[in-house]
Design goal:
282 residues; alpha+beta; 6-stranded mixed beta sheet; 4-stranded antiparallel beta sheet; 9 helices; 10 strands
């Protein structure tokens, strides 16, 4: 309770400098959607490419709730959220930034030899290296290294030390990965066995986007049995979208990002995904 004024003051200060912010609740994760936005009934801010509040008054849709609007940040719904919050987060991409999240000492040692020096912020287990420039966000680009920029959030842990460098190609190159195991097939437009005989509905972008957004929200809103929820969600996504070749690395990355935000390790995410693939025979 006593943290609320301090967190809200920090958020307002960041917003004044053009950094979109949002509160994090216990577990250092975003607040769950309000009833009007449950299951993305309102359309789903996570599908948007710019930050900003939902049309509802609540703090909904994770990173997409981040805002610089002081009227929103001090509104009754948000003030109540700050009262229950444990930390301030921000949307790096919305501020024109990219955060290289180094999660352990080995990752920091690697960065010091592989990446240009830039502004550094100490974290609980490692460091955030902050660059000027944006790019797609990716988790686990190498052991202990995540990239947080567009469509992601990072915890605010202070202004950091040192000048901020421009986003280098060395960081962008980290996001270039091998294709995922879910590969498009030559007959991707045909509905696989078990889904009927009509044209594959997943080729409609809105259908697939809604399915992925709902899966993200299911993981984000899990209040218990997170391991089981992640596995069941992965299984549901793959059973519905895994056989026709519609899933891309970007879709899988969004699901892993949601699971990671709930405290799941990369290893558990990968194990859960592979177990789901095996269960379905993919």
């Amino acid at each position: 309770m006593s943290e609320a004024p301090h967190l809200q003051h920090t958020a307002l200060s960041l917003a004044a400098s053009g950094v979109p912010v949002l509160p994090l609740r216990r577990g250092k994760v975003p607040f769950g959607n309000c009833p009007a936005c449950a299951d993305n009934a309102c359309g789903g801010r996570p599908n948007m490419k710019t930050p900003g509040p939902c049309h509802c008054p609540g703090v909904c849709h994770a990173w997409a709730a981040a805002t610089t609007d002081t009227a929103v940040l001090t509104s009754p719904a948000w003030t109540d959220a700050w009262r229950r919050a444990v930390a301030v987060a921000y949307h790096p991409g919305g501020a024109g930034l990219t955060v290289v999240d180094l999660d352990n000492a080995d990752a920091i040692t690697w960065a010091r030899t592989a990446l240009p020096t830039t502004r550094t912020v100490a974290t609980t287990r490692g460091e955030h290296w902050i660059y000027r420039g944006t790019m797609p966000s990716h988790n686990a680009v190498r052991p202990g290294v995540d990239i947080k920029s567009a469509m992601a959030y990072a915890r605010y842990l202070g202004p950091g030390i040192g000048p901020m460098a421009e986003l280098p190609e060395a960081v962008r190159a980290l996001a270039v990965k091998e294709p995922s195991r879910v590969r498009p097939a030559a007959h991707a437009a045909v509905v696989p066995a078990g889904f009927g005989g009509a044209e594959c509905p997943h080729r409609t972008p809105a259908y697939l986007a809604r399915g992925i957004a709902m899966a993200e929200q299911r993981i984000i809103e899990a209040s218990s049995a997170v391991h089981a929820t992640v596995y069941r969600t992965f299984l549901a996504v793959l059973s519905r979208h895994g056989r026709c070749g519609c899933l891309t690395d970007a879709h899988v990355s969004r699901l892993f990002t949601a699971a990671h935000a709930k405290g799941e390790s990369l290893r558990h995410c990968s194990d859960a995904w592979n177990n789901a693939l095996t269960t379905l025979g993919l």
